[in-house]
Amino acid sequence: MEYISSFTYCDTIQTQMTPQGPQQQIIRPLQSLTPIAIPGNFSFAIACSITGFNASKENEVQIIFSDSNNNVLYDTGKVKFQLPPEQIKENESASIQFNIDIRNLIFRAIGLYSTKVMLNNKELGEYKIQVIAGE
After folding, report:
1. What is the CATH number of the domain that holds 22?
2. Where on the phi/psi map is residue 33: left (φ > 0), alpha (ψ -120 to 50), or beta?
3. Chain-centre distance for alpha carbon 60
């Protein structure tokens, strides 16, 4: 069964080299999005991990960010992916992380915004975040 194993709104996601190889680091997790003024633009990132999908076939993921009136502000479209055969382990759940960098998105109103995560045309989850004018 497919499920979202982690989801985070953050300032950015950086990759750092370690002795174990590249490691991703979430920088400044966000509890709200705070453009300086409304209307105004704001940049942020989303880190999302999906687990339990069928790794032996091609899958499609879609991430949709909408305002409080369900107007779509950002849509990845359907992104196809398939794990390389050498990464598939027989008795383990397949897992993959997607990082989305959204730069200078225009916010026209304060309110409760949301991100929907879709896998193979099925909604796995919706994550809300408040947009307020920052300082």
Report:
1. 2.60.40.2560
2. beta
3. 14
Residues 81, 88: Cα–Cα separation, whole Å: 13
pTM greater than 0.85 (yes/no)? yes
Query: What are the pLDDT digits (tens) for 81-107?
Result: 988 877 777 766 788 999 999 999 999
- Containing structural domain, residue 26: 3-131
Alpha-carbon gap, residue 44 to 35, rounded angstroms: 10
Residue 81 DSSP one-character state: E
Total number of domains constituting the chain: 1
Cα–Cα distance for residue pair 112/82, rounded to 1 Å = 33
Q: Is residue 80 pLDDT above 90, yes or no?
A: yes
In this structure, which amino acid lies at residue 135?
Answer: E
- Distance between CA atoms of 119 and 59, rounded to whole angstroms? 7
